[in-house]
Input
Amino acid sequence: MSTTRRKFIGTAAALGAGAAASAATPFVSMEKKYPISHHVFFWLKNPESKEDRDKLIAGLKKLAKIETIRELYVGVPAATEERGVVDNTYSVSELMFFSNLEGQKTYQDHPLHQAFVKECSPLWEKVIVYDTEAV
Output
């Protein structure tokens, strides 16, 4: 058997084993795993300031240390196609997931969150929050 053929067969076997392992792993939806989401959109006072944007992003990422936050995603508007239903006027957003409402309340009252608001609120002119519970 040639070296190329052996490599191909070995790679195919490894891929097959990986696919079998993934199929055996049960899928758990985010709704079941973390039913409470907290999505916040920030509009900076100085939207052209990379320094302000980076400071806000760094402040948001520090919040991941709060024990009741199960998942944290920080992002900026994506360069997707322009459509009437897309609002990309914000500067930064954060999306958090919690196991329950009590965890979200703990986050709201947490000293790290309070410090974030004190430190970063001078950077933004507008904030909109969407809290959801899975159905």
Observations:
- The beta strands are 36-44, 71-75, 92-98, 124-133.
- The radius of gyration is 21 Å.
